[in-house]
Amino acid sequence: MKIATYNINGVNGRLPVLLKWLEEAKPDVVCLQELKAPQDKFPERALLDVGYNSIWHGQKMWNGVAILARDLPLQEVRNSLPGDESDLHSRYIEAIVGRMLVCCLYLPNGNPAPGPKFDYKMAWFKRLKKHAKYLLSEEVPVVLAGDYNVIPTEKDVYKPERWVDNALFFPEPRKAYKELVGQGWIDSIRHLHPDETIYTFWDYLRNAYGRDAGLRLDHLLLSPQIAPRLVAAGVDKHVRGWEKSSDHAPTWIVLADEEEI
Tell me, what is one Gene Ontology molecular-function annotation carried by this entry (predicted)? Predict the structure, then answer.
């Protein structure tokens, strides 16, 4: 089974890119972030036409998350992160997909920092850690995937000294990410590729993609009940080079079937 996460950066404006990638990569499950589309403008029909059922939580202009599934049952569990009923941002959606729980998240960017946006980022991260700990306590197969807007280590960024004043690389979110993984989650990319330079995002400015001046922001964390099935992980970097593509590239894992482990 192939599971991917992809910050699409506008699902309708980049629909041709998304459909092209789905046809090429044929993932079984996809977590999308930054839809930038209200609930009634999500391209459900276009995705059905290429074989994907979907659930989504949209928001006008900003945010928005979705989960797509091909030939698998898809049942929504929740469309917001617990812990703050006043938070109306569309940043989290969770579903039972087949025999596992898939959680799609779009963690706040936090810039400019310090300031209210960074405070919101850290408050959201605190809620995420609490919910993630609860999910682990359920002892079920869980994939916690999305755009975390966190550069975990210096290995995950081109020229880290240039990012010390950016909320993506501040000590606080990096510590929070480390604490999250420390609960018992497996960072799939780093688990299989501990020493490789791997990026998932390249800015549109300064020819960042051409220079491979990237960041690793998109992560797929696995619970202990599903981690033994992990057999491959990677990034479809070439998609970032397509015309009118997102500034992120699809990041994916492959899980062996349960009877194969």
Answer: endonuclease activity
